[in-house]
Design goal:
458 residues, alpha+beta, four-stranded antiparallel sheet, 12 strands
């Protein structure tokens, strides 16, 4: 069995896992050993450059000024995004409030059996009518081509725009739906009064217009040929015998800015009770112009981008201006002059408080500390009292220098070496540094006597 294993391991192309790892490692080192030195140097330089770049970037980002700048940029981005969302909402609200519906159609349910003519009253509370906007108002009547209607000939239609002072326009959708189903004045759209005048008795007539109408005439031969040609169509679609009359009632009617909008419309077909109708409706067609026309024609991406960007730019500039003004007002330094109060007393003991600025110094440069200095053996010690009085009732006269013989000035090795006037510091009054001639004379006598003794001994 052992011989079989050895023979298997010695076969060419068959290696164990450790042998494969060692072989791969040796091949890697051999390849690295024979790499061109220039390539190695280039790799080393590239690694060094990358390391330095990363280090410089880290140092740059770790600096306080850069962190503050990054925080400001992030804040501006968040502010910009929030204002962009608000601009979109503002544009949508502006579009809904400023731009009217180009076509507004309301159904009119004609009432028969009340009065001499058929009439109908419908609500306009759910419509989007605007002031200062010209409208063309038309009435659509769908009637069958029956013999009774064809024999009717011309007849008049009247349209009345009504306003109810007791009813304000609804401000919520559920009020609009309720008004639409119940009527402009809160009552059912189908009145129960026999006189149509009672339905509009409590309303103000804002505008009234009447127009003539006539069912189109068709020659009997042409009508017969048309029926024979389209007989299957007329059989399966009997409503094809109907015709729609579109009657223009009002042209370019605009409501004033300070005026009111109509709440309801009253339609009366002055053709008696024998006129046969399928349905009726009133259409308000807005004749757009100026900015409203541009917004309606370019409602897509151009108008949206232009107006949204305008809202965003105005809001962003206003916000940044306000923030800059607030920051300048907060960071504005107050010009406060710092002063230091120093008590100075005169020689008679009357203290007077004076305000002394920081840059000022004592004129004489003397210290206010009380000190005592020794004098010669035959003279009392010299005492210098401070200029600030410690206790009340104590005589604060400045110490007088008495019994001080004239003294010679001390040599100053630094005389003439002053290149500028240094700031004055407090120093002592200099008491005790005088020159005593008596002491010097006695020392001179001693020296002469000792010299004479030496000469005699010699």
């Amino acid at each position: 069995m052992a011989s079989d294993d050895n023979s298997t391991s010695d076969e060419p192309g068959v290696y164990s896992l450790p042998d494969l790892i060692n072989r791969a490692r040796s091949e890697y080192h051999r390849a690295v050993k024979y790499v061109d030195p220039k390539v190695r140097e280039a790799q080393r330089l590239a690694c060094e450059i990358a390391r330095r770049v990363v280090r410089d970037i880290y140092r740059f980002l770790a600096s306080r000024n850069v962190q503050i700048g990054i925080a400001v940029i992030i804040g501006l981005l968040i502010l910009s995004a929030a204002l962009a969302v608000l601009s979109v909402v503002a544009y949508l609200l502006f579009y809904n409030r400023f731009l009217p519906d180009q076509l507004t159609t309301v159904p009119v349910h004609l009432q028969y059996g009340y009065g001499a003519n058929c009439w109908g009253l419908t609500s306009l509370a759910h419509t989007n009518l605007k002031t200062l906007q010209p409208y063309d108002i038309s009435l659509s009547l769908t009637v069958p081509r029956s013999p009774a209607n064809l024999e009717r000939g011309n007849f008049m239609v009247a349209v009345h725009l009504l306003y109810n002072p007791k009813l304000s326009r609804p401000s919520t959708p559920w009020q609009e739906r309720l008004t639409y189903f119940a009527g402009a004045d809160g009552e059912p759209l189908i009145p129960t009064e026999s006189d149509p005048g009672l339905a509009i008795a409590d309303k103000v007539v804002m505008y009234t217009a009447t127009r003539p109408a006539l069912i189109p005439y068709t020659h009997p031969v042409v009508e017969l040929a048309s029926r024979l040609l389209f007989l299957p169509y007329h059989i399966f679609y009997p409503h094809s015998e109907a015709t729609t009359l579109k009657i223009g009632v009002v042209e370019r009617l605009a409501f004033p800015r300070a005026g009111i909008l109509p709440n309801s419309v009253y339609v009366e077909v002055q053709a008696g009770q024998t006129l046969q109708t399928y349905k009726a409706s009133v259409t308000f067609s807005a004749q757009l112009g100026g900015l409203r026309w541009a917004m309606y024609q370019f409602w897509g991406i151009p108008a949206f981008v232009v107006f949204t960007f305008t809202f965003w730019a105005v809001s962003m500039s206003s916000t940044l201006t306000a923030l800059a003004a607030i920051g300048a007002w907060i960071n504005c330094p107050e010009p406060v002059k710092k002063v230091r109060k120093e008590i100075q007393e005169d020689r008679k003991g009357k203290g007077q408080a004076t305000i002394k600025a920081e840059g000022e110094h004592n004129e004489d440069g003397l210290s206010d500390t009380e000190r005592t200095f020794p004098s010669s053996s035959k003279q009392p010690a010299l005492k210098f009292e401070g200029r600030i009085k410690q206790e009340e009732g104590v005589d604060d006269s400045v110490a007088q220098l008495v019994n001080v013989p004239p003294a010679a000035e001390a040599d100053d090795e630094d005389d003439g070496d002053d290149f500028g006037d240094p700031p004055p510091d407090y120093r002592d009054s200099g008491i005790g540094t005088s020159y005593d001639d008596s002491v010097v004379s006695r020392e001179g006598v001693k020296r002469r006597r000792s010299g004479q003794g030496l000469r005699r001994g010699g």
